[in-house]
Inverse folding.
């Protein structure tokens, strides 16, 4: 069974800092990996999707990388802003089926 | 507007009283799925569907049923709800990823908060 772990569980940084969120998974036979953002009391918004054949994806200040062989992905946020405060979730789609496994998330607080 | 719509958004019910949470998408997506989100446990997949009449169990299917009679709708049925099914439920949909397997970028509904007394 695919296990997805996110470290750290919580992070607080001052505005303007660059930061890295980590996601690891136990089974490297994945189809894709997605990063989501969840605001309190709200649904999830997809940020980036990386196919298994890709190494990274970029969207604005966000950059996600994937190292399938080591079972790791990172989400890099440049020049953080208070509006980036949210919970960030990593989800892995395994080759063995069509199930999607989520990490428990990293709760990010960016202070002004 | 492209969206996934869940109803009801909030529901308080009692043990054993059958209920259905509806999910509808207007994007002609083949893939749909249900998740529950609990503190300390994160999001866990309940059921998913690759297309009409094709459904499969996720990690926590016990106590739930689903059906996919139409492409746009994927209702979640709790035949006899119990207090341990108190949770925040999310429906999501997507096109399959290129090549057939898996799912592409997921669109989530706003969530349905269910309390079973």
């Amino acid at each position: 069974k695919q296990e997805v772990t996110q470290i750290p569980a919580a992070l607080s940084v001052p505005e303007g800092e660059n930061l890295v969120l980590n996601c690891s998974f136990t089974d490297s036979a994945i189809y894709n990996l997605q990063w989501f953002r969840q605001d309190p009391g709200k649904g999830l918004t997809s940020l980036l999707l990386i196919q298994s054949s890709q190494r990274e994806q970029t969207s604005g200040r966000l950059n996600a990388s994937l190292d399938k062989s080591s079972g790791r992905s990172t989400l890099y946020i440049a020049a953080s802003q208070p509006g980036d405060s949210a919970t960030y979730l990593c989800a892995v789609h395994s080759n063995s089926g069509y199930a999607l496994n989520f990490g428990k998330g990293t709760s990010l607080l960016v202070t002004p | 507007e492209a969206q996934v719509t869940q109803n009801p958004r909030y529901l308080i019910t009692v043990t054993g009283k059958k209920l259905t949470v509806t999910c509808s998408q207007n994007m002609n997506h083949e893939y749909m799925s249900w998740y529950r989100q609990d503190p300390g446990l994160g999001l866990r997949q309940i059921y998913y569907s690759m297309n009409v009449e094709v459904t499969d169990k996720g990690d926590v299917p016990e106590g739930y049923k689903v059906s996919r009679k139409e492409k746009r709708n994927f209702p979640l049925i709790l035949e006899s709800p119990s207090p341990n099914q108190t949770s925040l439920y999310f429906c999501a949909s997507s096109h399959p990823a290129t090549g057939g397997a898996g799912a592409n970028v997921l669109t989530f509904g706003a969530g349905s908060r269910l309390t079973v007394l």
In short: DSSP finds no helices and eleven strands in chain B.
